[in-house]
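Request: How about a record?
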Amino acid sequence: MAGQVQTAARVLAAGRVLIGAMLFAAPDRVAAPWVGDDARTAGARVVVRSLGARDAALGLGTLAAAGDAAQLRRWLIASSASDAADFVATLAGPRSPARTAVLALAAGAALSGIAMAASV
């Protein structure tokens, strides 16, 4: 069971690194469906790049900790807290199909991370 949780944590972390890298590299294109036309402003690009860097760092930390149960649990909890914050922030905004997808992704990642942390 522990091996399956570690594998699932690695997959979730790798996805986080990928999403973070995409947010950092192309913030206006990747974030436009999420935040609307404002994503194309200079200020929004700064914030989106920062979120991308955060997600990439959380993913890389989780990958590095995958062999140590105590450390992995901490990284999964930190990642889940970030996902929960993304959910709440997105929930506070107007609705659109893309934002609904972000809500589902954030909720799923937060709940998955907590479940994995409890299983490690």
